[in-house]
Amino acid sequence: xTENTTEVLVGxxxxxxxxxxxxxxxxxxxxxxxxxxxPLTASFRSIEGVAVGTDVRLxxxxxxxxxxxxxNPETFRADTTFSVAKDVEIPDDSxxxxxxxxxxxxxxxxxxxxxxxxxxxxGDEVLDTQGAVSLISLLLKFVSGGENGSEx
Length: 152
Description:
This protein is of the alpha/beta class. Helices cover 24% and strands 33% of the residues. It is built from two helices and eight strands; from the N terminus they run αββββββββα. The protein has helices spanning 2-29, 135-143; strands spanning 37-44, 55-58, 61-72, 77-85, 95-100, 107-112, 125-126, 128-130. An eight-stranded mixed beta sheet has the order 7-1-4-3-2-6-5-8, with no helix packed on it. The longest helix is centred in the N-terminal third of the chain and has 28 residues, at 2-29. It is elongated, with a radius of gyration of 22 Å.
C-alpha cells in the first residue's frame, strides 16, 4: 500500500513541475499576454532575420514581439505587425529599425522614439522604417573598396 502512495506522490510532483515549465515557457515567449498589449504595423524593404516571435525593443528593453509578417504583392515590401506593451506609449514620429544583436547575433526590431507629444493608437502604421542591412553586402563593399560601379 505504501508503494502506491509513493508512486502517486511522485507522479503528482512530476506533473506539478511539468505544469510549472509550461507556465514559464508561456510567459517567456509572450503567449500568456493577450490584452496587455496593442498592435502596430510597419512596412520594411527587408526584414532579413525577423520572424514571428522576434523581440521588439525600446532602449534595449523588450516591450513586445513581432506577431505577423507577410509580403505585400503590390509594393513588394514586408508588412509586419508587432505588439507593444500597453503601458509604453510610442510617439507618432518614431522610427522602427531592424537591428542586429552583434556580428553573430540574431536580429530584432528596435523602436527609436521621436519627440512628438502625440502617440500611436492601436492599429496605427509606423511610416519611418529601416530594413535589415545584409552583413554579406557590407563585407563585399569593404573588400571591393566601395567601388560597385559608381564612378565619380
